[in-house]
Amino acid sequence: MDGNDKSFGDLSTNFWSWEFRCPCKKCRKKKVLVDDLLLFKLEMIRIALGNKPMIITSGNRCPEENKKVYGHSDSAHVPKPKGKGSDVKVKGVKPIDVGLAAEKVGGLRIGIAKTYTHLDTKPPIPSRFWIYTGKKPIYSGSIENNDLLKFYQIIKGK
Ligand SMILES: [Zn+2]
Ligand SMILES: [Zn+2]
């Protein structure tokens, strides 16, 4: 949402249900359910990054939609009963830097993709961090589970 917009979202200060809606036809009229802790943490990250607009590229997904986009079978995007996952983009901020801001906020699992950052409030099992490379993510569990930047540098070879 625009930082100059004085109105508030229906989910939280800056977020609206429509942004988290499953994009499939079947879910057009379904109620959008998003975990309150996730919304709170997204607001915190947004502030940490200077209140730039945060775009939700994927919020809730029904099981069919999740399959269609090759989501994990136990994806946090699928509401149970609330959706605990989101893919976000912040204008002018790299996905890894959104991830590092999320790491500072804490209590999130973080997935770094080429153009977005996955954030969810599920417990860190098996991993707290991962990096999307093609269709199969590389999980931090067996490599380094405590430091996102270190893990990212190992995977990227930097
Ligand atoms: Zn759907
Ligand atoms: Zn995701």
Description:
The protein is built from 5 helices and 6 strands; from the N terminus they run ααβαβαββββα. The chain has helices at 17-20, 36-48, 63-68, 95-105, 148-156; strands at residues 54-58, 85-90, 109-112, 117-120, 129-133, 136-139. A 6-stranded mixed sheet has the order 1-2-4-3-5-6, with helices on one face. A hairpin with a 2-residue loop joins strand 5 and strand 6 (136-139). The longest helix has 13 residues, at 36-48. The model has no long low-confidence stretch (mean pLDDT 93). Residues 22, 24, 26-27, 62, 65 line the site of one zinc ion.
**Ligand species:** zinc ion
Q: What proportion of the residues is helical, as a percent range?
A: 25-40%
Based on CA inertia axes, which overall geometry fits?
A: globular
Q: Helix-strand pattern, N to C?
A: HHEHEHEEEEH
Mean pLDDT: 93
Note the gap between the termini.
34 Å
Task: Report the oligomer.
Answer: single chain
Radius of gyration: 15 Å
Structural class: alpha+beta
Low-confidence stretches: none
Strand line-up across the major sheet:
1-2-4-3-5-6
Summarize the structure.
The chain contains 5 helices and 6 strands, in the order ααβαβαββββα. With 158 residues, the chain is α+β, with helices and mostly antiparallel strands.
Helices, strands, pairings?
Elements: H1 17-20, H2 36-48, E1 54-58, H3 63-68, E2 85-90, H4 95-105, E3 109-112, E4 117-120, E5 129-133, E6 136-139, H5 148-156
Parallel strand pairs: 3-5
Antiparallel strand pairs: 1-2, 2-4, 3-4, 5-6
Helix pairs in contact: 2-4
One zinc ion (ZN) binds next to loops.
